[in-house]
Design goal:
- This protein is mainly α.
- The chain is built from five helices and no strands.
- It has one domain.
- Helices cover 85% and strands 0% of the residues.
- The longest helix has 28 residues, at 96-123.
Length: 124
């Protein structure tokens, strides 16, 4: 039960971090494009890669700690459902080009950030 509580706490912190960063980024633009969600998801992929690689190759981390960080915090920090909703809203509003740009940027930047994070984690 303790592990579940730690995951829940990490998830709560990840959610607050996502909300704060996404809001900060989005409010710094005057665009319909969901820059806040894109920034959070790309950063999340980068950090996830760094953590996976560093915890797997450089630092001895218990499986419980790994689960708390990756499933709890990082799982709550990134958000596919928000990405899908915002892209759907762009389509619904007729902003097909912005929707396509969001889908393309999210996938390419997310995968690139993950690969960079894995490489950085090996260097730590």
């Amino acid at each position: 039960m303790t592990k579940v509580l730690w995951i829940a706490l990490a998830g709560a912190l990840g959610t607050l971090a996502r909300y704060g960063l996404s809001k900060l980024v989005q409010e710094s633009t005057e665009s319909l494009f969901p820059w806040g969600t894109l920034a959070v998801n790309v950063l999340g992929c980068l950090v996830f890669g760094v953590l996976c690689s560093a915890m797997g190759e450089r630092f001895a981390v218990s499986p419980q700690t790994r689960t708390i960080l990756l499933v709890g915090f990082m799982g709550a920090f990134t958000t596919f459902s928000t990405f899908a909703f915002e892209t759907g809203e762009l389509i619904r509003e007729g902003s097909w080009l912005l929707a396509a740009g969001n889908m393309t940027a999210s996938n390419i930047l997310g995968l690139t950030a993950l690969l960079v994070g894995l490489a950085l984690g090996r260097l730590i």
